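User: Is it possible to get a 3D structure for a protein together with its bound compound? The compound here is adenosine monophosphate. I've pasted both below.
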Amino acid sequence: MAVLSRLLRARTTTSYTIRTFSSSYSTSPPPSSPENDVIKTPTDGRNVQWVFLGCPGVGKGTYASRLSKLLGVPHIATGDLVRDELNSKGPLSEQLSEIVNQGKLVSDNLIINLLSKRLEAGDAKGESGFILDGFPRTIRQAEILEGVTNIDLVINLKLREEALLAKCLGRRTCSQCGGNYNVACIDIKADNEKPAMYMPPLLPPSHCASKLITRSDDTEEVVKERLRIYNEKSRPVEEFYRKRGKLLEFDLPGGIPESWTKLLQLLNLDDHEDKRSAAA
Ligand code: AMP
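Assistant: Yes, that's possible. Here is the predicted structure of the complex:
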């Protein structure tokens, strides 16, 4: 924990303004909504320090990874750190595997230790800023993070409950290249209260198709437990940041192209790469 404090303290600043990004993405005044008032960026030239919240399966990894490429900051997913540790067959791996495969959270101390190590390694490489995905997941983690650094923005991704389970069960990774795909096709009809929602599958290219693996904690029973734990332990973290004026709510409207475009609009960012490849 001390390491996290030291590392993050070094990154801490106090002055912020409404964001004015430049370089590879263009700017224009954000649309006037209370939510956009929270989109802030540091004024001292350091990179953004953002957090992604949201239920399992909502797509935190997808959007955090895209934004990290766009903004040139590391995407740090604590779930990946846990899986790396688990696969390393080190002293903690058996204990971790049991916790993860039951859909439970690992201890705050352990996760902070793993995150500290990751930040330390990044620091040594000259990284600055971050997009955290899957951390903080408890009020204690949020308090520790808040105590040691300024988080500029917390994006709360939201998706209807009925789509979350299907998305977790459809998740696949290529064991060779690490590419992430989803074989689920979400097609929810409109009802009196909610509009229709369509999320097409994200299918792998043919060279990955025979190498797909499923996460061991993406079974129906475990996903339901992870959703229950999210509601119990992580939902209060949303309120923690809402009270501090840092929470940006984003309801995913559909599949990745539609959602990515809308998210960029909300953040007042422009993805020139994406536009170029769409035009090609
Ligand atoms: P994820 O890939 O984010 O779904 O995380 C996979 C698993 O890693 C979770 O179900 C937890 O067991 C563990 N984990 C990841 N991040 C945290 C965290 N911030 N606190 C506690 N456990 C975590």
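The domain at 45-159+221-278 is CATH 3.40.50.300 (Rossmann fold). The pocket of adenosine monophosphate is lined by residues 56, 78-79, 82, 99-100, 103-106, 111, 134-135, 137, 141, 217, 226 (CB under 6 Å).
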